[in-house]
Design a protein that fits this description.
Chains A, B: It catalyses: 3-(methylsulfanyl)propanoyl-CoA + oxidized [electron-transfer flavoprotein] + H(+) = 3-(methylsulfanyl)acryloyl-CoA + reduced [electron-transfer flavoprotein]. Chains A, B: Pfam families: Acyl-CoA_dh_1 (PF00441), Acyl-CoA_dh_C (PF12806), Acyl-CoA_dh_M (PF02770), Acyl-CoA_dh_N (PF02771). Chains A, B: This is 3-methylmercaptopropionyl-CoA dehydrogenase. The structure is a homodimer of 593-residue chains. Chain A is α+β, with helices and mostly antiparallel strands and 593 residues long. Among the domains of chain A are: 148 residues, Acyl-CoA dehydrogenase/oxidase, N-terminal domain (Butyryl-Coa Dehydrogenase, subunit A, domain 1, Orthogonal Bundle); 125 residues, Beta Barrel (Butyryl-CoA Dehydrogenase, subunit A, domain 2), CATH 2.40.110; 137 residues, no CATH class. In chain A, 56% of the residues lie in helices and 11% in strands. In chain A, strands 3, 4, 5, 6, 7, 10, 11 and 12 form an 8-stranded mixed sheet that branches. Chain A has a two-stranded antiparallel ribbon with strand order 1-2. The N and C termini of chain A lie far apart (53 Å). Chains A and B meet through helix 9, helix 10, helix 11, helix 12 and helix 13 of A and helix 9, helix 10, helix 11, helix 12 and helix 13 of B.
């Protein structure tokens, strides 16, 4: 069972992550609190009542591949159609083609709940929305006319085709081919792997966005173009025509997200699939980045959704399961394990991770929205940089938290957690992909260190750290005794973050790139833990909106956080600034010989 | 592929964990270095050549349950019989019944390799050996005569039947019944769950050790007796008689260790299974603890085995897989990912965990051996207490490390890590049970805090901490420049461990048991991390035995450890000493209402 945490989500959007800034903009002038609440409530209801019960079915039945076709798990086609009939697919898409034009923050909140319902389900539309964004921004009007409305409604789904066997993280190595045809279209050929929802029977057509190289393209990533390749060609009247020269050659047998078909796609076996250029030739990577950046946030939200769902299930189990006698309990009866201090610790470890993931994801969504509504070039630049800075934090830390929370959830279940019938293990299996896809968390860390810290000549991160200090000052100035020493703990953590940041930036400035890269992963965790801690404290210091129990709970979580996750920070700083010499001295190739 | 790390194992046994103390004893006077080496080499060969290749078969095929019978995975019966023909089952068992009487340290070393080969395989004999230990120590001569030789040779396997649906960690709640029969035997009835290797076709007979209550037994754990219940009754001449009144009602569908059948066992459906009392009536728990303590170390070794195997596979993948260009590499070719600093960090994170797990497990085995060979009552007490202190550390930390290392291994594989064909995911699935069974790691932490810290009125832990300080002094006195500041880092960690220990013991002394319990889990990790760090430093400071490359590698690992895992210690101390108030204030039951 899943209960959508509407109150926490709404509070985090409004009081912690700045939804008010978005509501105050001209573009979202219609988005009153009532509408926000109505949307959250209805999304929460759908996630809890419709999606959540189908999660286990999707896991056990998975998808079935035969003769190039993929059959969705039982009930999943109906689920998907109910979902798109609710208008959920086009939440952020342009109203010009039937979308609702809502801000990313609301979409992030809904996406959390879809993922709590079922990560394998929420994943498909995430890809479609990525395709919508790429088309909105880069496609010709003709392509938009033909494809956009149906992708926005969800009548058709979209995919992203980047990976090839030899080209995963390194798109330089990409070899899929595109040749110009006489009619202005292209003939696409090549094999793509790990294509999420590459083939299925949820929709009548599937719109593949495919990276490929023209024959005369420069080497490397500057020679990659993006093409739209529909499964079925579309006639002038919008009806479906012939099957394109693309087929699914198989689906992977995966650790988790069994209901999400991960396909090997073969393009051009019979001479070349018909594709249409999106944007300009050889500029495909820029288009793809449009999809990828938001997709990274969307994957972060998967970690959030799993952490919350796993927490709820573990809590429910811990309240029912009785073993031993907790301190303070008397009489012959066994205590619910939720009363044992160690189980309380574990439950809090899960819940603090869920809430920390939430503030990170919503803060990133806020920055993306701000970059969209910015009215000056300066503001646009600032918020684009902020979104850029927060994206690796919002992708990596929440996905790590998702795995950690799910694993703690298994532990709380004891032996039952290892039995698949319980469902606890599914969260761990599903969650494990999120730190990997859309750029491994190691690549997020490299992105943070090599591309984001240097933004505006290092001034952006400096300003960001200054803002955190300001929030901490505000928490301290609130003088609330119930917060304890929270501001002191945060000030220490921020100092560690400042020192680690200076160390990494100095290494880069001095050309010691390998030193900076060796510390990238602990640096990312350190930065994300500190930022999340500051936001949790901001929420704890906020007024109670008349709901004291909820506020007490927020304070308890924020205080727990300062004694647990935040306490990793000092060690991470020591690691960033101390370990590069030994790490770089490690020579794995010498071991192999 | 698995390559047994014989040199590291031998070095750790001898130079770090004190195998020489055991070899110097009268009981093991025959155990020269040559024999040790021969045993390790042959065990390593069997693990690498015979067991390791069957691991994936066991995972994919699992066991098949039908009509109360369990069929092992293809090839597993032959594998088991080859293994027992090598005499491996009786390594530590008494020579009186065909065992080899070798010390636990050697058995631990071999068990690491069996588990690296296949955790699901190594698990079965672990249970048999537990049964052997219980019989050796507590059974009547008649029972020994009938059962011991065949359990020691491995011709029959043994099981442990504790858990019932309502009684997992809490044996007070156990309800299986035993009634006295006229012939001196007993009639056993009740249902047991999660019985590892409870039914299978590897051996012709299976010897169940079953906890049950007599009708007139006192309530609680003082009313539990231990019975031997053979699957087939044994005739006076040793041949097999009638099928006993015990059957397997099903096997669990688990996250991992698919080749290990986890059975629901039903005793006495047809009037009562014939059982024979082991030890005294109502004293079954003491007998069971004999099995459980060594089983806890054996489970810790599972974590070690998985960490080492997962590391080797990830290393091998990272050397083959090419993506991007590592710092310092030039030319158009992609670099093996093993050259990227972040991957080096991840490989080291796995390897430091494997080596830290190894020193913890072997040190615990050493203490057990010392308690067996002790010649004075005082020594016996000291080493029994030391084994007691180290057992929760050797169970919990290595099993957590196993999960952590396997998860990092999945990450190093990128998208391929999530695909079951790669095998990386199996290590994670298999490893995940080890922190749960034989007493969850939370229960280990409670055991450490409530039973082990108070040993000898708190003097034992005090002496232990003093010994650690002595080893660190030795490392510092070695004055080896290549060790860097290792002794300083360790001294800081030890101070944190001392402070955390004092905090917990004070809480207990003042009757604030809930405070102590709230910090038990981070305290265990803190203690284990510090102890392992000290032992790794001891190894790093030791001479190179003429093999410089191996010594350089040990120093690199120990130095990496001091900047990474050891740096968790300060945060853990802050957690232990700071978080209990907020953790105990958490009221999960209020959330449910």
């Amino acid at each position: 069972m899943y209960r959508a945490p509407i109150e926490e989500i709404a509070f985090t959007l409004k009081q912690v992550c700045g939804l008010g800034d978005i509501q105050a903009s001209e573009r979202h002038a219609d988005l009153g609190d009532d509408l926000v609440e109505a949307i959250l409530n209805e999304a929460g209801r759908f996630a809890a009542e419709e999606i959540a019960p189908m999660n286990v079915v999707g896991d056990r039945k998975g998808t079935i591949f035969a003769d190039g076709k993929v059959k969705a798990a039982p009930g999943w086609r109906d689920l998907y159609h109910n979902w798109i009939e609710g208008g959920w697919n086009g939440l952020t898409a342009t109203p010009d083609y039937g979308g609702q034009g809502l801000p990313m923050m609301l979409s992030a909140a809904a996406l959390e709940m879809w993922n709590s319902g079922s990560m394998a389900f929420a994943l498909g539309p995430t890809l479609t929305i990525g395709a919508v964004e790429a088309l909105e921004k880069h496609a010709s009007d003709a392509l938009k006319e033909t494809y956009l409305a149906k992708l926005i409604s969800g009548e058709w789904m979209g995919t992203m085709n980047l990976t090839e066997p030899q080209a995963g993280s390194d798109l330089n190595a990409l070899t899929a081919k595109a040749e110009r045809a006489e009619d202005g279209s292209y003939r696409i050929s090549g094999q793509k792997i790990f294509i999420t929802y590459g083939e299925h029977d949820l929709t009548d057509n599937i719109i593949h966005l495919v990276l490929a190289r023209l024959p005369d393209a420069p080497a490397g990533t500057r020679g990659i173009s993006l093409f739209l390749v529909p499964k079925f060609l579309v006639n002038a009247d919008g009806s479906l025509g012939a099957h394109n020269d693309v087929r699914c050659a198989g689906v992977e047998h995966k650790l988790g997200i069994h209901a999400s078909p991960t396909c090997t796609m073969v393009f051009g076996d019979e001479g070349g699939a018909t594709g249409y250029l999106i944007g300009e030739e050889n500029r495909g990577l820029a288009c793809m980045f449009t999809m990828m950046n938001n997709a990274r946030l969307a994957v972060g939200i998967q970690g959030l959704g799993i952490a919350e769902r796993a927490y709820q299930e573990a809590l429910s189990y811990a309240l029912e399961r009785k073993q031993g006698r907790a301190p303070g309990d008397s009489g012959p009866a066994m205590s619910p394990i939720a009363r044992h201090p160690d189980i309380k610790r574990n439950l809090l470890a899960m819940k603090t991770r869920a809430q920390a993931a939430r503030v990170l994801c919503f803060a990133c969504a806020h920055a993306i929205d701000m970059s969209h509504i910015a009215e000056t070039e300066e503001d646009r630049k600032f918020w684009s940089e902020r979104a850029g800075l927060l994206t690796p934090l919002a992708k990596a830390l929440p996905t790590d938290f998702g795995v950690e929370a799910a694993s703690i959830g298994v532990q709380i279940h004891g032996g039952m957690g290892f039995i698949e019938e319980t469902g606890a293990a599914q969260y761990l299996r599903d969650a494990r992909i999120a730190p990997i896809y859309e750029g491994t968390n190691g690549i997020q860390a490299i992105d943070l260190v090599t591309r984001k810290l240097p933004l505006s000549g290092g001034e952006h991160i400096k300003a960001f750290l200054g803002e955190l200090a300001g929030i901490i000052e505000g928490v301290a100035a609130s003088n609330l005794p119930e917060l304890g020493d929270m501001a002191i703990h945060l000030t220490e953590a921020l100092r560690d973050l400042e020192e680690a940041t200076a160390w990494i930036m100095t290494a880069q400035a001095e050309g010691r790139m390998a030193d900076a890269l060796a510390g990238a992963t602990p640096y990312l965790r350190l930065a994300g833990l500190t930022f999340a801690g500051v936001l949790l404290a901001k929420g704890a210091a906020a007024s109670d909106d008349g709901h004291k129990a909820a506020r007490d709970q927020r304070i308890l979580l924020a205080r727990t956080y300062t004694f647990t996750l935040l306490k990793e920070v000092a060690g991470l700083k020591a690691d960033v600034t101390g370990s590069s010499e030994v790490i770089l001295a490690f020579d794995p190739e010498a071991l192999a010989s």
